[in-house]
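Private note to self, pasted from the team thread so I don't lose it. Backbone tokens:
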């Protein structure tokens, strides 16, 4: 009797509504425990234990600005405890920490983490709304919960990183370009450039796309911040900044956690299991050549869509990935820049699948071929693999490296297992960037052929 009622109910409910209801129920079941776990890790954090993350260093640089001192000078580096290391961000970055300078480091850390959490939520809301995902409120909850509790996002909060603010600026620029508001988009890119230098590649994207107003707006929004901070720090701060990057690069560019093209190339020349991959002339030249080739490939695969005002989503997303991938280093918290490209890829693949499903009842010559469905399946597999590779821990790579280096006297089988695990985690660290870039390139080529 009950089964008969269930069958009668299902026969009256359209399949689409039933699938949507199942999706909503499953999404809520998955999201709630993940969200609770992620927020608890954020709330329970002991903020007095924060190390020298980006935010704390820039906060110190902002305090020096108000005192009329430069963080790049010998005195400034000594005041910050960075005399053996150097100041890693350009003079424009501490500008955003001037309002936080009067607070204690604990209060500053909590405010910055709260702002990053809010920025992440706005980031996801814009992506889901713009791409018109089904059941948008539930989808926002699901995506937000999946991201906020990951080890790399928790590190983003705890170590006071600013990657999410750059990611939000990218998403806002994309949002404005979709409405042909080039000046607003350019302002977003220009402000992103004041946080770090690698968003400058997006200005090149705007140049290639002949978005002239956006280019001028990006420059016009960047210059006031640069002028204000240069006036406070002095003209010498810029050459001092670039000079100090050499020592920082020697320390970090070959690190196992560095997922950029430079780190990958250097570790191919000097494997992590053998020795630390220090930058040398040959390795630097090869890494630079690889970066140039990646940029040339991005231009080549997007060249026909760069000037398309209606269908630029994939080309924009591809350049956001390349802008980070060509940076000297990519740490795990940079993965917030993958949110828009992966959601865009999911939407593109889903639209193609729905279109193919609707054409299945048409004339035989209009029905998608088997290779069409194979392409959709492969695209979905790449997305799934990319998302799975984002679930790794932050410090597990360093732990694996330490364990392998201590395994000299262990049995050959144990040492081999530790060796395999070391390189597996190393690959998993940079794999989502390579897969995302390759996937967007394939989607661009596929869309060009089927247009």
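Design output:
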């Amino acid at each position: 009797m009950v089964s008969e009622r269930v069958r009668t109910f299902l026969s009256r409910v359209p399949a689409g509504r039933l699938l949507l209801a199942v999706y909503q129920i499953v999404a809520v079941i998955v999201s709630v425990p993940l969200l609770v776990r992620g927020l608890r890790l954020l709330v329970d954090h002991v903020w007095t234990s924060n190390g020298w993350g980006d935010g704390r260093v820039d906060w110190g640089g902002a305090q020096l600005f108000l005192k009329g001192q430069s963080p790049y000078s010998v005195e400034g580096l000594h005041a910050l405890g960075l005399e053996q290391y150097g100041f890693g961000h350009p003079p424009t970055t501490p500008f955003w920490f001037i309002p936080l300078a009067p607070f204690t480091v604990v209060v500053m850390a909590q405010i910055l983490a709260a702002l990053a959490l809010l920025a992440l939520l706005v980031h996801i809301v814009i992506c889901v709304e713009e791409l018109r995902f089904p059941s948008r409120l539930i989808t926002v909850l699901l995506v937000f919960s999946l991201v906020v509790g990951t080890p790399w996002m928790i590190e983003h909060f705890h170590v006071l990183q600013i990657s999410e603010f750059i990611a939000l600026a990218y998403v806002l620029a994309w949002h404005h370009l979709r409405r042909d508001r080039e000046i607003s988009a350019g302002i977003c890119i220009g402000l992103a450039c004041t946080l770090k230098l690698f968003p400058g590649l997006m200005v090149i994207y705007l140049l290639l796309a002949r978005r002239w107003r956006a280019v001028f707006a990006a420059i016009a929004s960047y210059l006031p911040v640069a002028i204000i901070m240069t006036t406070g720090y002095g003209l010498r701060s810029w050459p001092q900044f670039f000079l100090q990057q050499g020592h920082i690069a020697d320390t970090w560019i070959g690190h196992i956690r560095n997922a950029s093209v430079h780190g990958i190339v250097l570790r191919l020349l000097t494997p992590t299991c053998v020795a630390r991959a220090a930058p040398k002339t040959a390795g630097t030249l090869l890494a630079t050549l690889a970066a140039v080739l990646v940029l040339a490939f991005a231009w080549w695969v997007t060249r026909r869509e760069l000037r398309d005002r209606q269908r630029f989503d994939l080309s924009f997303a591809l350049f956001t990935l390349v802008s980070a991938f060509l940076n000297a280093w990519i740490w795990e918290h940079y993965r917030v820049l993958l949110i828009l490209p992966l959601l865009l890829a999911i939407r593109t693949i889903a639209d193609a699948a729905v279109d193919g499903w609707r054409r299945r009842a048409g004339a035989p010559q209009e029905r998608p071929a088997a290779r069409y469905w194979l392409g959709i399946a492969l695209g979905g597999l790449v997305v799934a693999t990319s998302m799975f590779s984002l679930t790794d821990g932050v410090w597990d790579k360093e732990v694996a490296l330490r364990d392998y280096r201590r395994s000299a006297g262990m049995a050959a089988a144990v040492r081999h297992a530790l060796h395999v695990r070391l390189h597996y985690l190393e690959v998993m660290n940079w794999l989502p960037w390579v897969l995302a870039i390759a996937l967007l390139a394939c989607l661009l080529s596929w869309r060009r052929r089927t247009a």
